[in-house]
């Protein structure tokens, strides 16, 4: 039983870090602008398909595509805000919700139109394979994804905490009018926030594609739902909270499946989520720091 | 005798009768036209998933059925295939066939409304489909209400013909029959190869398909003295699953010899990839087909050596030469060869054609009588087995053989007398030895 628990813990932390990276991008946009990007998983799908096609057609290593996808998705995010979201900012919240939902459909069916609906995987990744140690099996691409997640989250944290643009983002998130009074161009900050949020998604999508089957209809939902839960659990606008939320989700679903009954894996996550929200609405991190 | 209308014009009683009679005749003619399609054309309403997870499979259905339509309407030398001889359906004075495709998106409510539209607006003579058992149930209820035959060749749920319907016929082997074939194979493996297969793990996606398969397999195991379940049945949500490692851990911990997995394509790949990561493989991975027969799964190396219950294999043409000719026709005319999924759509279409060919007319009642009395030899309905329905509408001739994935293709391994020499790889090598 101990190797099973150990394996579930390791798997939970690794998948949780991936959830956390995806959730960090969602949480950034959500926290700064109070907009839920329902197309978050579909945005990740763009990076996944770039990875899939570039590795299959051009034999480019997914690792080399990390910066490419980060920049590409930054541009997509920046452009999405300037061309679409900005125009809904003064309208009702429902308009923004419908707008991101419309984006979800456009991206999903656009990809299906361009590359078809079938399930595909990245093959011949140089780091394919797994290692078994102390009865615990770890997939090399999953470990690599966890490492990239930690590095990216750290960079994201430093960007927000240590740079001028990061301070401007945090100021805008706290009080838009006050930030404007201090000379911050909040519109540009919003666009940059979308860019950074989706760049994180681009990095996550690139790595997740190396070991996760991709299907345009089914894949985005898995990651969007998990990242919603991670953000709700970890607290809005908190990078660290989103990551901790992601890890908690990964651990709960894996340990719950191992210790209780594997048929109710998703149930455990949402029981914990509901409990956490009832007990501590501001998220886990605030609960921890309040102690 | 006349009566005064409100504006003072006289309306004769004879005039009223003439108008009423004409209106009645017109409406009756309209009703007749609506229910019987367009005279010398057999209109089949085909409801399948053409978008969503199964869209690519739906597209392959369209391809091979399109080739089938061509064989019927233009004639072919695909004897003994129903409707292939001569141009059009000979039993209906050369009536042509047209297939109206509708996408139910895997949604039972959409399936119901599309079926109503096909019958009431388009005048479909027959309905076919719908791959998913849930959608099939919705459509068959519409067919029952409207009195239109529903020929189902693509859904394998065991309970589909247990609903007391008069307008529903199921062509392929249902999950119970598949389960019996699969475990007869496992039993024969114990007898012939001393395989020691005993403990069976059942894991399934929690949709209608997966649940029905699991229930059927549990039933087969419970009635067996040779096999036992270990661990208890495991289910998961296919749309939200990101890993099956914990489930695999539970199966390994229970010491299962056989894993029966009912899955969609994405979770089938997650299962196999996670098994590879865990460096775990049971004595036998034995699936009820579906996702594991999909070309996108077969092209992945992790699917190598998986056993599945199937109506199709790439080497079946050696034992069933007419199937090879049908496959050549489908590939030449649509670019799509047969596979483990689209062969069901092919059989579904030609069962409908055979029924129409033998019916007195294309009226629903005649088509119903024809389906009830159908007795087709193997290959006539485009399948390696015959078609003859019992009182409930289930094809008593349907059977399933067992295939094994080998280098992206499916090879028959059971019944042993239908397998090619050296077709089977057993014991299945460890991951490290592949």
Protein described:
The complex is a heterodimer of chains A (291) and B (434). With 291 residues, chain A is mostly helical. Chain A has one domain (14-220). In chain A, 75% of the residues lie in helices and 3% in strands. Chain A contains twelve helices and two strands. Chain A has helices spanning 2-33, 40-58, 62-83, 93-115, 140-162, 164-174, 176-181, 186-208, 219-234, 239-259, 265-279, 284-290, and strands at 130-133, 136-139. Chain A has a two-stranded antiparallel ribbon with strand order 1-2. In chain A, strand 1 and strand 2 form a beta hairpin. In chain A, helix 1 runs parallel beside helix 5 (140-162), helix 1 runs antiparallel to helix 8 (186-208) and helix 5 runs antiparallel to helix 8. The longest helix of chain A has 32 residues, at 2-33. The radius of gyration of chain A is 19 Å and the shape is globular. The two termini of chain A are 33 Å apart. The model of chain A has no long low-confidence stretch (mean pLDDT 88). With 434 residues, chain B is an alpha/beta fold. Chain B has two domains: 41-173 and 317-372, 3-Layer(aba) Sandwich (Rossmann fold), CATH 3.40.50; 176-310 and 401-433, Rossmann fold (3-Layer(aba) Sandwich). Chain B is built from 13 helices and 15 strands. Chain B has helices at residues 13-35, 55-74, 108-121, 133-146, 175-193, 208-222, 245-253, 265-277, 295-298, 316-319, 321-334, 342-358, 364-372; strands at 2-4, 10-12, 41-48, 96-103, 126-129, 150-152, 168-170, 199-205, 228-229, 234-236, 258-262, 284-287, 307-310, 401-406, 409-414. In chain B, strands 8, 9, 10, 11, 12, 13, 14 and 15 form an eight-stranded mixed β-sheet that branches. A five-stranded parallel β-sheet of chain B has the order 4-3-5-6-7, sandwiched between helices. In chain B, strands 1-2 form a two-stranded antiparallel sheet. In chain B, helix 9 (295-298) links the parallel strand 12 and strand 13. In chain B, helix 2 (55-74) runs parallel beside helix 12, helix 5 packs across helix 6 (208-222) and helix 12 crosses helix 13 (364-372). The A-B interface holds A 1, 4, 7-8, 11, 15, 112, 116-121, 123, 130, 132, 137-139, 142, 211-213, 215, 217-219, 221-223, 225-226, 253-254, 257-258, 262-263, 265-266 and B 51-53, 55-56, 206, 233-243, 245-247, 249-250, 253, 264-266, 269-270, 273, 276-280, 296-297, 300-301.
């Amino acid at each position: 039983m101990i190797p099973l628990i150990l394996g579930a813990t390791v798997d939970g932390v690794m998948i949780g870090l991936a959830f956390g990276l995806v959730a960090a991008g969602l949480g950034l946009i959500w926290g700064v602008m109070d907009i839920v990007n329902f197309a978050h998983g579909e945005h990740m799908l763009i990076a996944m398909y770039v990875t899939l096609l570039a590795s299959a057609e051009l034999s480019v290593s997914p690792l080399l595509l990390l910066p490419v996808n980060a920049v590409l998705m930054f541009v997509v995010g920046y452009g999405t805000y300037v061309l679409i979201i900005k125009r809904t900012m003064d309208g009702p919240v429902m308009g923004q919700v419908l707008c991101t939902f419309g984006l979800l459909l456009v991206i999903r069916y656009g990809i299906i139109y361009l590359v078809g609906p079938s399930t595909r995987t990245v093959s011949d990744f140089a780091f394919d394979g797994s290692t078994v140690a102390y009865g615990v099996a770890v997939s090399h691409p999953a470990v690599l994804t966890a490492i990239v997640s930690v590095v990216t989250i750290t960079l994201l944290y430093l960007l927000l905490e240590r740079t001028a643009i990061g301070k401007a983002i945090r100021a805008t998130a706290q009080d838009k009018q006050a930030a404007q009074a201090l000379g911050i161009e909040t519109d540009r900050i919003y666009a940059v926030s979308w860019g950074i949020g989706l760049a994180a998604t681009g990095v996550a999508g690139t790595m997740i594609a190396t070991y996760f089957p991709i299907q345009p209809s089914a894949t985005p939902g898995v990651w969007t739902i998990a990242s919603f839960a991670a953000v709700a659990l970890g607290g809005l606008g908190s990078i660290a909270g989103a990551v901790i939320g992601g890890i908690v989700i990964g651990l709960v679903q894996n340990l719950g499946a191992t210790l209780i009954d594997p048929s109710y894996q998703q149930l455990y996550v949402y029981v914990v989520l509901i409990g956490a929200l009832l007990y501590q609405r501001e998220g886990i991190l605030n609960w921890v720091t309040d102690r | 005798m006349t009566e005064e209308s409100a504006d003072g014009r006289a309306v004769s009683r004879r005039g009223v009768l003439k108008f009423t009679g004409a209106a009645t005749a017109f409406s009756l003619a309209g009703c007749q036209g609506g229910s019987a399609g367009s005279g010398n054309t057999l209109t089949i309403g085909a409801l399948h998933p053409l978008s969503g997870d199964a869209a690519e499979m739906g597209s392959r259905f369209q391809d091979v059925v399109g080739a089938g339509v061509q064989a019927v309407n233009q004639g072919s030398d695909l004897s003994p295939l129903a409707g292939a001889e001569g141009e059009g359906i000979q039993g209906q004075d050369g009536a042509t066939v047209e297939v109206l495709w509708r996408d139910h998106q895997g949604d039972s409510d959409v399936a119901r409304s599309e079926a109503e539209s096909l019958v009431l607006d388009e005048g479909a003579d027959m309905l076919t489909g719908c791959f998913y058992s849930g959608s099939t149930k919705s459509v068959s209820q519409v067919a029952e209400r409207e009195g239109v035959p529903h020929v189902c060749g693509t859904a394998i749920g065991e309970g589909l013909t247990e609903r007391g319907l008069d307008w529903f016929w199921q062509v392929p082997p249902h999950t119970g029959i598949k389960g019996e074939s699969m475990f007869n194979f496992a039993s024969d493996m114990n007898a012939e190869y001393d395989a020691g297969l005993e403990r069976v793990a059942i894991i399934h996606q929690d949709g209608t398909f997966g649940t029905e398969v699991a229930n059927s397999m549990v039933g087969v195991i419970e009635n067996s003295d040779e096999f036992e379940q270990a661990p208890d049945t495991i289910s998961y949500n296919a749309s939200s699953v990101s890993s099956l490692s914990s489930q695999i851990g539970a199966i390994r911990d229970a010491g299962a010899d056989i894993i029966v997995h009912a899955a969609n394509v994405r979770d089938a790949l997650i299962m196999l990839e996670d098994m590879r990561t865990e460096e775990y493989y049971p004595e036998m991975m034995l699936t009820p087909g579906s996702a594991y027969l999909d070309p996108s799964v077969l092209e992945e190396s992790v699917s190598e050596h998986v056993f599945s219950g199937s109506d199709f294999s790439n080497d079946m043409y050696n034992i069933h030469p007419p199937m090879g000719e049908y496959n050549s026709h489908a590939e030449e005319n649509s670019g799509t060869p047969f596979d483990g999924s689209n062969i069901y759509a092919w059989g579904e279409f030609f069962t409908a054609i055979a029924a129409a060919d033998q019916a007195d007319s294309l009226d629903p009642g005649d088509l119903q009588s024809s389906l009830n009395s159908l007795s087709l030899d193997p290959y006539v309905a485009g399948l390696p087995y015959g078609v003859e329905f019992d009182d409930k509408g289930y094809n008593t001739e349907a059977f399933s053989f067992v295939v094994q994935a080998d280098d992206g293709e499916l090879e028959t391994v059971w019944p042993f007398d239908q397998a090619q020499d050296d077709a089977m790889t057993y014991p299945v090598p460890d991951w490290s030895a592949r």
